[in-house]
Amino acid sequence: MELIKLRGHTYYIPGATNIGVYRYKSGFCMLVDSGIDNTAGKRVLEALDSEKLKVKYIVNTHAHPDHFGADNFIRENHTGTLIATSKVERLFMENNSLEGIVFYGASPMPGLSARVVKGKETFVNIELSEGIVELGDKKFEVVPLCGHTPAQIGIVTEDNVLFCGDAFFSEEKLSKYPLPFLFDIKEQFKTLEYLLTTDYDYYIISHSEELIEDPKALIRKNIDNLNENIDIILQLLAQPLTREDLAELLIKRYNISMNVPQYFITLTSVSAFLTYLLEKESIHMDIIDGKMYFYV
User: Which residue among 41, 113, 164, 290 is buried most deeply as judged by most CB within 10 Å?
Assistant: First the structure.
């Protein structure tokens, strides 16, 4: 891993999860997210050590393990590190078993403890709200980017760089995961439409091997992806289907490789689309003979 300069004091460390870095003049830095586990955290610290940087803050965009899983390791190695996120994401970071409960609806079944679902519970020092926040002697802007999770945030540095977590996905990811993980479709539309009105010099998403050359075009492709999935679901619901029936058809259509976590990740996204379509009154729901059916 290496530290790549974007502009001014703003950098990033590319990897499986891209890590934002803001460099203070004091030799400290702020990270945006940390990676999935101790191994990722060690690589991040090696990149920072080569630049003689110590971590003062970690801002987590949201409470998925691939974004905060290395927080504890970094804080243990850089004593005094303060961890920040939004109020709702804090709840999940400090009680990460809730993630499996959200997926399963009860005490999580065996198989829902994989590291992509359950991270190490992490104490959060600072709750962030929308607007300007001062961390150290610098001001940053916190922007709400809900949809992928209940209360995902992005953070803007003074160099006009937005670190936006999983607010939208690269073409490579959309090709590999045409039904991406989403918690709230209505909020995801709002986030994408909001981002189209913004004008940052860089939009750093968490899972992309390259810097985004045309972020607005990619955001529009994410909107297209939502609409395409809605159209497919409406077509499939020409006949009444249970949520599990619909998930099965989408899994087969997109040839999604299955294990226990991936099944519930997919089922959650399907549920998000069903909620959105029910709220718009584009589909109907009935319970017949003990099963819940959805249909147009």
Answer: 164
Distance CA 269, CA 273 (A): 6
Structure pTM? 0.95
Six-digit token string for 70: 């290395």
Instruction: Report yes or no on 192 lying in a domain.
Output: yes
Name the E strands within the chain: 4-7, 10-13, 19-23, 28-32, 54-59, 82-86, 126-128, 131-135, 138-144, 153-156, 161-163, 202-204, 284-288, 291-295
Domain interval for residue 118: 4-228
Nearest to 31 by CA among 16, 15, 19: 19
Rounded-to-integer distance, Cα 82 and Cα 84, Å:
7
Distance CA 180, CA 166 (A): 10
Measured from the Cβ of residue 259, the count of other Cβ atoms closer than 10 Å reads 11
* pLDDT tens digit sequence for 37-92: 999 999 999 999 999 999 999 999 999 999 999 999 999 999 999 999 999 999 99
Query: What is the rounded distance in angstroms from the CA atom of residue 266 to the CA atom of residue 273?
Result: 11
Question: Does residue 278 lie within any of the structural domains?
Answer: no
Domain at 125, CATH number:
3.60.15.10
Tell me how many domains the chain contains: 1
Residue 179 domain flag: yes
Residue partners of 100: CB distance under 8 A and separation at least 6: 108, 112, 113, 117, 118
Handedness of CA 204, 205, 211, 217 (dihedral sign): negative
Which stretches within 150-259 are classed as H helix?
171-176, 185-196, 215-236, 243-254
Question: How many of the other CB atoms lie within 10 Å of CB of 213?
Answer: 7
